[in-house]
Design goal:
Shape: rod-shaped
Number of helices: 2
Helix content: 40-55%
Strand content: under 5%
Structural class: mainly alpha
Largest sheet: none
Order of helices and strands: HH
Number of strands: 0
Radius of gyration: 55 Å
Length: 144
């Protein structure tokens, strides 16, 4: 606003001559200022998270137990299958051992035929009881 418009004449003698216009609150007052701390909810409560974690871990442990039972059943099945085959394998090994032992005794009889008092099949370290070839005492390399 210009001075001319306000006073009706040019020039101003004092600031006091200007009309006083004071700012005040609007009718009904200013709206209240929100100063309280209001943090919006950003997710589930801690107890809910804890409960869900317990459920997930419980389910995982259930699955681990299920896998253990399945693995145990497979292991028992494998063991049963091996035990069913053992007699056949043992019979095959016994047959192989007898053939090899017979050949060894024939070769020993042929080699030692000129030695007086030599008994075929009797070792120098006779213990009096039968032992499998791997346990028979004697010099190294004398096994089948």
């Amino acid at each position: 606003m210009t001075e001319y418009v306000v006073r009706g004449s040019a020039g101003m003698k004092s600031v006091n001559e200007l009309p006083v216009k004071q700012d005040g609150p609007p009718p009904g007052g200013f709206p209240s200022i929100r100063y309280a701390r209001r943090v919006p909810s950003t997710g589930p409560a801690g107890a809910t998270v804890f409960g869900v974690a317990l459920l997930v871990m419980g389910y995982g442990m259930y699955k681990v137990g299920e896998g253990n039972r399945e693995r145990r059943a497979l292991k028992e099945e494998k063991k049963a299958a091996r035990m069913a085959v053992v007699p056949a394998l043992q019979a095959e090994e016994d047959r192989r051992y007898l053939e090899k032992e017979t050949k060894r005794l024939e070769e020993e009889a042929k080699l030692m035929k000129d030695v007086p008092g030599w008994k075929v099949g009797q070792g120098v370290y006779e213990t009096g009881k039968w032992m499998p070839p791997a346990e028979r005492p004697g010099p190294v390399g004398s096994y089948l």
